[in-house]
Amino acid sequence: MTAPGHPQARENRSGLVGQSVRRVEDDRLLTGAGVFVADRNPDGVLHAVFVRSPLAHARITSIDVAAARRAPGVVAVITGAEMAEMTHPFPPFLMLPGLYTPLFHALSADKVRLVGDPVAVVIAESRYLAEDAADLVDVDYEPLPTVASIAEALSPTSEPLWAKAGGNVMMDHTDTFGDVDAVFAAADRVITERFDCPRQSNQPMETRGSLVEVDAATGHLTIHNATQSSHLLRWAVAALTGKQRTTTALKRFITNKQRRRAFFAGAKQFVGTNRDGLKEQDNAGPLAQLKKDRSFLGHMNKIAVGLLGKDDYPTVKAQDIGGGFGSKGPVAREDIALAAAATSLGRSVKWIEDRTENLMDGGQAREESLTVSIAVDSDGTFRAMRVDLIIDQGAYPGFPIGAPLITKMMKVMFPGAYRWDAFEIRSRVVATNKGRYIPYRGPWANETWARERMIDVVADALGMTPAEIRLHNMIGADDLPTSMVTGPSIDETMSTKQTLERALELIDMDQFERDRVAAAASGRRLGLGIACYHEAAPGPPEFWDCIHPGTGMLTPEEAHTTVEADGSVLVYTQQMPHGQSHETTYAQVAADELGVRIDDVTIVSGDTDRTPFGFAGTGGSRGGPIGAGAVRTTAREVRRQLIESAAGMLEASPDDIEIVDGNIHVAGVPARGVTVAEVARRAADDGASGDLHGAPFEVADVYNGAGDGGWSVATHVCIVDIDLGTGLVTFPRYLVVEDCGPIIHPAVVDGQVRGGVAQGIGAVLYERTTYDEDANLQAATYMDYLVPTAMEIPEIEVHHLETLSPGENDFRGVGEGGMVGAPAAITNAIEHALGARVTTQYLPPTKILELAGVIVPG
Amino acid sequence: MKPAPFTYHRPETLDDALDLLATHGDDAKVLAGGQSLIPLMALRMGRPGHVVDIGRIAGLDSITVGADGDVTIGALVRHEQTRTSTDVATHAPLIATAMPWVAHRAIRSRGTVLGSIAHGDPAAEMPAVVLATEPTLIARSSSGVREIAAADFFHGYLDTALRADEILTEVRFPAWSPNAVGAVVEVARRHGDYALVGMAAMLTVDGDTISSAALAYFGAASTAIRVPDAEQALVGATVSADTFDAAAAIVSAELSPPPDIHASAAYRRHLAGVLTVRGLSAATAEIGADA
């Protein structure tokens, strides 16, 4: 459903981009021919099972593995202490003022910090035998007082999880923009409310899993892993499993030719590529130039590979992956333990996480407390906002991205699409005896939830409607370009206000009011909720440096496009598809640029030996703007080269030549053409062979999205229908008006939006990672952690605006927004329906009836 | 998530199965549809040394209607079979009414009706249907046959009158009275989940006067449970909203459902009352329409 007649709606495109073409992935996935980690069972593979702590917080006083080692089929049992001898601890990734980042190993040796903390790994000939032996590992624990909540973690008397952290507050930092005190003092009113979001979990259909294959002759590791970022995993395994003394590492660097060669090749390439920049008079030095280096990542990879602790760098191969939602981006302790175990045994080892392990420590998210104060004038004009944010990061920090960086994302995005004179946010991160807090689809999303909730609270206090107060304060087209109070520039791609206006046109408010009265007469309550946001997808060039200086260096992304001698097109990406349809959408983009058929294009991903280097993998709504931008840039150059080659054969000027369906010809004269395959064959016969893949045509380039506004925006409006007898909530209507710019594949975009909304519905009505007061996990199976099914999800209308951006590549990301907007729209609708203040994000039937005053809180 | 080691038996005859149970006693578990037992074993919450699979035993998979309209269901009859059976719809309609609430089709296609009864989950539908309709439960062991009254069958949480050496081979539901009406209603967090609270109701009605009532609740106690005081309030009363409200008030006052992470005790008590009214209204909807 597009928005006909909208002034900025895009003209229908010719070609593949913009069409819901049949998905390339579907034949394979829908016939069960996909290959997931669990499907790989090489001969003689061993199976790993982790022995996990039954207690949330305890000292390990002894561990006896003798009986387990004697058990049938057991090849090895490795304890935490033994693992610490084999591996480095996970290093701090982000240096922030006032942040304590603990060092921790793949397995715990002295102390356990959550239910499910791995203390040993059993390697046996089958998963059954390994589980039997794991039962025989005898661990003596001395229980410690538990820290089960943010409130307990803030208490100075709580038992510290990390001795050197000085309590359980890991970070306490305040960012201020503008003269907040003065603006607050001058405003007519200050309204404050606290919002709490309980813990949730990313729940991909496929759990985590890894198969580490060891080449018997060379010892080389090939890791098949359900990872969102194969290069990151490769680096982490190389760095953390090659434990040796610094002096040994230096000595090896000096004596190892391969390492020296890699290091100097990277340095030389960097200097070569950046010769002019480094010579400039105003140059601030090599580090400043590093940020401008278009091939920064590739150069740094070569340099760092030379310095790493391992002589041989593993190959990571990821193929089909059954979802991640952020949970397969971080490198897990189990990944490192498994690689170390396989290395020490010289045998292939496999681990497929079971659902209970996944619910214990496969990644949890969103547990945040947010106190929001808004200074507002009597006419409803927002003046300033103050936020006190506390994130419960659980026991171990997510690696590499965890709560500290997410506080910075929330800092930048909290003001939303509204005008403010000043803004301040205090961010604290606390440690508790719970699972690892990691990014979950729209990791910053609770800024939208708390802000949009708070705006309704303010509207209520001032006697305005939620729509009125938003329209009054929202940045509109007339205000652009401008900047957010937190730094990032915003341009016409920040079309949130247009999406709100369009959404309001689509809702018949008079009819809603009539339905509301009718429902009230039959014991039901109807409510309508609105939520608006913009998200960086990828955001303007300075966006990541606004979050934290230096992180912008990770934005650029490389792609390779080749034409093989048979005319087939291969596109190599560092993206790691796990449900986003890259194989289709990137083929659409490349085929359109090149003028070939979609069937001629194959997307290559996941194999670190073949794909371009990049840490980001798939995440952060980058696949459309950055990844597809890199594909488009390289495909465009390949097309230029093909036409140049064909020009001689056709005796025509390149300017007159076009490529249609793989046929290269003078425009309008298709009969006198040559095929892409013929041109490629001739080039190959002439000896053309690229450095990277040996193809006759080969283009590698890095794309950084620079010049694009890069905002993806939406307004969600939902109507809830609440049964006061049962507390059940249904959705007579849920609509999203979104603008992610030009759409590559409408069905994929709609699917992303609907999937995100479904997870938002899950967050509010079904999903909660419940711990009891002693930090025991109460939702360790799918009987208790409730993921909504198709039966619980209503029809979700998706309407599109397609605002063009000024940049070269105007695709914008859409992977996260559905999840960002939904919890706010739903909780706003529920507050509207019940006329009772909603301050928690989780509203099961009991809570609904408590809010409605039907039952007494227990 | 793999079960602890166990010995698997697949006897071809009922006698062989009963002999195995007699030999292994508490260390053996009967496997029929496996929809409760297998997950418990995979989580290692159940660790039987012996599993006796009765799936190959002939003669246990039939639904038979007796001369006076009673319906006998065998140990291997799947839930889905009763959902689609015209005999069940005609002669034991409360079972058919309960079926759409039972989990999902995939589970109903494997899980057995008698397995659900023998497992005795307090939040499952079939134990409440048993309490409401009062069938005779027939248990066999190598030492003989026992008939157990419905009221005596459920002892506590996942605990029934069945002995470790017995198999629940048949359940015989009494003939459905021409004056009987019934309903099964429940609320679950998601479609197909175990109920937060549910109710199976059977009434007999003469004209618009209720002549007997059985109200059985699930998810409301450590077993499925009847509320006799509410039933007595209904008997002799006319079919009306006031009558149902009065019964609901008694139900809410008398039940003490347990809280868990999915719902509070107060919610469940309230819901039991709401479902009482809704279930009785649904059961008597056609009577109201006729009147």
In a nutshell, what does this entry contain?
The complex is a heterodimer of chains A (858) and B (291). By secondary structure, chain A is of the alpha+beta class.
Explain what you see:
The complex is a heterodimer of chains A (858) and B (291). Chain A has 26 helices and 30 strands. By secondary structure, chain A is an alpha+beta fold. Among the domains of chain A are: 204-361, Aldehyde oxidase/xanthine dehydrogenase, molybdopterin binding domain (Aldehyde Oxidoreductase, domain 4), CATH 3.30.365.10; 477-542 and 708-851, 2-Layer Sandwich (Aldehyde Oxidoreductase, domain 4); 556-703, Aldehyde oxidase/xanthine dehydrogenase, molybdopterin binding domain (Aldehyde Oxidoreductase, domain 4, 2-Layer Sandwich), CATH 3.30.365.10. In chain A, a hairpin with a 6-residue loop joins strand 10 and strand 11. Chain A is globular and about 80 Å long. Chain B is of the alpha+beta class. Chain B has helices at residues 14-24, 37-42, 79-84, 86-91, 93-98, 105-110, 113-119, 125-133, 228-234, 241-254, 265-283, 285-290, and strands spanning 7-9, 28-31, 50-53, 63-65, 71-74, 136-141, 144-149, 154-156, 159-160, 167-173, 180-188, 195-206, 209-218, 225-226. In chain B, the strands form four sheets. Chain B has a five-stranded antiparallel beta sheet. In chain B, a hairpin with a 2-residue loop joins strand 6 (136-141) and strand 7. In chain B, helix 7 crosses helix 8 and helix 9 packs antiparallel against helix 10 (241-254). Chains A and B meet through helix 4 and helix 26 of A and helix 11 of B.
